[in-house]
Amino acid sequence: MTFSVTLRAAATSGVAGTLDAVGGPGTERVFVASAPCTLVDVLAALDLTLELPCGGTARCTGCRVRFAAGAPAPTPPERALLGDAAVAAGERLGCACVLHDTAILELPGPVWRAGGKGFGPDRLDVPATARGVGEALAVDLGTTAVAAARIDRATTRALAQVCAPNPLQRFGADVLARVSAASGGALRAELDAGLARVCAQVDPDRRADAVLVCANPVTTHLLVGADVASLVRAPFEPSFRSPQPFEVDGRRGLTLPLIGGHVGGDAVAAALACGLDRAVAPVALVDLGTNCEVLLALPGGRRLAASAAAGPAFAGGAERAATIAALLDAGVIDASGRLRDAPATAPVTARDVRALQLAKGAIAAALDVLLHRAGIAAADVAALHLCGVFGARLPVPFVARLGMCGDVPPERVTVWRDAAAIGVRALACERSPLERAVTFAARVEHVDLALDHDYRQRFVERLQFPSRPPAASPWTPNPPSRAR
Amino acid sequence: MLAQLAEAIRSHRPESIAACRALAERALAAGVPAARIVDAALIPAMADVGRRFRADEIFVPEVLVSAKAMQGALDVLEPALADAGREPFATIVLGTVQGDVHDIGKNLVAMMLRGAGLRVVDLGVNVAPQRFVAAIDAHRPELVGLSALLTTTMDAMRATLDAIVAAGQRDRVRVLVGGAPVTAAWAMSIGADGHADDAAEAATVALRLLGR
User: How confident is the model over B168-186, as a mean pLDDT?
Assistant: First the structure.
C-alpha cells in the first residue's frame, strides 16, 4: 500500500513563511506512506511538530487541521468538539487523525513549528525516597543539538528548558570532522561557551547546585579537557570511563560514565530512560544519532554494547527512509537495493538507497552480533527501544520494511523521543545522581565490531532489504514518553 | 563454455560459486589454455561486474559473490597458468593505513584488482608505514594502494608516502589512494599518483597507472 500526504500552506497570510522556515524551500511538503499512519507521525517524519495542548487526548481543539481532500472518517470526539458543519468542511483534530489514503492538508500557521529536543513529560517516575533536594541542571549535549533543563529534584519537574544548536556544528556535522577541523582547545572553548549560554538561559539566578551532562565520548573528552587522540583512530579507546568533574562558567559539572570509544554517556542515559538496568526479559536499545549505538540487556544483569557507523544516511530525515520503504513496496526498488526504472522525477537517487543500505546493514548486523554473543534469538527480544535524533523520527512500519532492526518482530519496537534527555533529567533528580549510571555502565561488555569477522559477514548479509513486506501490523503512534 | 563461465561470474547467484570451479575445470579438460580462459572469461566478466557496480545496478553483496566465483575459477587455473609461464602482469601491495581498521572496501578493491589480472599482496588493516616499505622491498610491486575510511586517519596516508620517499622507493612505485573521505585533491596534496572513488574505479585507475 502506498499513498501520499500533502501538507500545504493555508490561504491565510503568513503561513507560507512558517512552512518555509521549518521545511526548506516551497510551501508544500509531500510524505509518501506505505502503511496507515497518524498525522502526528507524518509530521514528526517531516520534522514538524503539532502542538497538542491537551497532550493528544482529543479533549480540546488546539490541534485543529483542515483537509482539502482525503479527510479520514471523523471519530466521535471530533464530531462532538468540532461540530458537524466543521467536520463536513474537512476539519479534524490533528491528534486523532489516522491516515489510510492520499490526502491534502492545509496547515494553520501558528500551530506548526520545527521540532526540537525536549525533556519528556511533566513528572518522572523517580521513587520519592531516591530523590534529592534543591535544583540541578540536566544537559543532553548532543552532536546536533544541546538541550538543557533546570530540574526541581524533589518533584522531578523541569522548571525551565531550552534547546540550541551544538556550537561545534560549524566545524563539521560529526565529531571526527570536528576533531580534524580544529584543535581540542579551540573546540573546548566553543563548547564551554555554548554550554554556559544554555545554562544561563535556564538558570539565570544560579539556583542549581550542579550540572549533569550526558554526551558522546569525544564531546565528553573535549568538555573535561582530555586528549581525544586515542578516540579518533584505532584502537578507539577513551582515556577514561568514569564520570569526570568539570567547570563551566563557575558552575560545577559532572559527566556521565562512558562505555567504550563510541558508546558514551548519552547512550547510558538513553538506556536508563528505557529501563535497560531493570530488564526482566531481553531488551535492546538502538540509539540512532549521528553515530549509532546498540545495547542489549539480559535478565540477570548481563549487558552488551556496540557501535555502528550509521547516522549520516538518516540525516536526510525520516522522509527519505519512508520514501525508500514505499518504493520497496511498489517494487521500484528490489530486495538487493537496485532502483529499477526510476523515473527522472524519483524522489531518491540510487546513491541514497545504497547509503541507507550501508547504514541499516550496520545497525542490523551490530544487533545480530550482540544477540549471537548473548546466545539468544531475535524472537527472544521482549522489547526494542529505538531512539536518538534520527531514530526517534522513524515510524515503526518503515523500520520494519527496511529491516533496520533485523529479525526483531516489529510489534516489539517502540520509538522514543528525547530518551537521553529524559534519562539525564531522571538521574539529576536522584540523591546520588551517578550511582545508577555507574552501576549500569560498569556491567556493560563493550563489543568492538571493527575487527570482528562475524560482524563483517553479517553486515554484508544485512545489506539486503527484507524481500517481502512484513505482515501488516496496525500503526501504533509514539507512546507517551515515560521515564525509567 | 567460456561464455557460460563469464555468465556464471556475472550472475552473482550463490550457486554460481561452485559452478565456476566446475566450468573452469571442464574448460581446462577440453584443452582451452588457462591464459585464454582468464583473458576471455574472467577479466571481461569482472570488468562488467565493476561497470554495473559503478552504475549502482549491483551492490557489495553481489560483487562479493561474483568475486568469490571468479576467485574459485582462478584457483583452478593457477597451476596451469604457472606451468605455462604466465605471470600476473603487475603486482600491487595494498593495505588500510595505520590507525584505521576498515577493510570491506579494501577487500573489494583487492578482488577487483585480481579480477583485472593483477597479483595482490594484501597487508591487511592498521598497517604501519614501515610495513609498506618492507613489503615494497620484499614483493617489488609496480603499485601501492592505500585505504583510509576516516578523516582522522587520512594523515597516515601522508606519513606512509613520506616513509616510501625516505626509503628511496618512490621512483619504483605508483601510489593509488582511496576510501570514503579521500578526494582527488587530497591525493594530489600528499603526492599520490592516483585516486579512486570506489573499488571498480580502483581497477581502472590501476590499469591506467600501469599504462594499459
Answer: 94
Cβ burial of B79 (10 Å; 0-12, 13-18, 19+) is exposed
pLDDT digits (tens, 9 = 90+) for A190-204: 999 999 999 999 999
Strand ranges (DSSP E) for A325-474? 383-387, 413-415, 444-446
CA distance B23 to A179: 52
Are residues B59 and A357, on separate chains, in Cβ contact within 8 Å? yes
Indicate whether A50 and A136 sit together in one domain. Answer: no
Q: Name which of B64, B65, B101 to mutate to probe chain A: the one with the most chain A Cβ atoms within 10 A of its Cβ.
A: B101
ipTM of the complex: 0.85
- If asked whether residues A42 and A145 sit together in one domain, one would say no
| Shared domain check, A155 and A46 | no
Pick the closest to residue B94 from B61, B116, B79 (CA basis): B116
The answer, yes or no, to whether residue A13 has pLDDT greater than 60, is no
pLDDT of residue A266: 96
Q: What is the 3-state secondary structure (H, E, C) of A228-277?
A: CHHHHCCCCCCCCCCCCEEEECCEEEEECCCCCCCCCHHHHHHHHHCCHH
Contact between chains at A338 and B58 (C-beta distance less than 8 A): yes
Query: From residue B187, how far is each of A417, B49, B76 by CA, in Å?
Result: 42, 26, 37
Structure-model confidence comparison of residues A173 and A382, the more confident one: A382
A191, A273: one domain: no
Between CA A22 and CA A199 the distance in angstroms is: 26
Instruction: Mutation target for B interface from A233, A324, A349, A451: give the one with most B CBs within 10 A.
Output: A233
Question: Residue A72 and residue A92: Cα distance in Å, rounded?
Answer: 9
B58-94 residue pLDDT tens: 999 999 999 999 999 999 999 999 898 888 999 999 9
For the record, the C-alpha cell of A480 comes out as: 507517551
Question: B-chain residues within 8 Å CB-CB of A451?
Answer: 101, 125
Give the residue ranges of DSSP H helices in A155-228: 175-181, 184-202, 217-223
What total number of domains does chain A contain? 3
